[in-house]
Amino acid sequence: MDRYIYRSGKLMRMQGDASVPEYNITDLVKQENHVVSIRGCLQTASAYKLSFPFFVSGPGVTYAHIPIGEETVDGHQCHVEDVIIHSPKNPVVVHFRFYEADDLKGFPVKIENRREHAYPWVIHYKDVRLGPTDPSLFLVPDKCETTAGFKKTGAGAKPKTVPSPKPR
Q: Closest Cα to residue 137, out of 9, 46, 8?
């Protein structure tokens, strides 16, 4: 799916071409997200999925960079490297292959999932533009509902059963 993604420092905005305008603004440092639409605003205590892999950071996270070589992707000469990420919060080791465009100051125009035993996927970034971003793209309403008060429901929870009456 095509999406529009904007970044300014620690903030990312992700939006699609939906008939109902909606966008997400993720703070990569605070690891929180605001979903903004004509229906309202909702603040969540986690980064939005489309800010991945940029939100994979934090205290104790370590990165191994393994140079692979060079390749051309969509007309961009790229340095290719494998990046292996270890996080104390996640026992699963994350393994990506980044195709970093020289003409875009190393921005990854292509990212591949390289982890074994995982669903293979590829992210392609097109029409990447570097430079100042309009700050109004990252504004969120003053009043936003929060998911803090929502009650979690367990998957597979069984409803209470009442014994049926004995037949006569």
A: 8
Stated pTM of the model: 0.71
Q: What is the pLDDT of residues 116-129, one digit of tens each?
A: 777 788 888 888 88
C-alpha count within 13 angstroms, C-beta hemisphere, residue 107:
16
78, 101 Cβ separation under 8 angstroms: yes
Reference 56, options 95, 20, 18, 17; nearest CA is 95
Question: Is the Cβ–Cβ distance between 60 and 88 less than 8 Å?
Answer: yes
The number of beta carbons lying within 10 Å of the beta carbon of residue 106 is 12
Pick the CATH number of 4-149 from 3.40.50, 2.50.20, 2.10.260, 2.40.160: 2.50.20
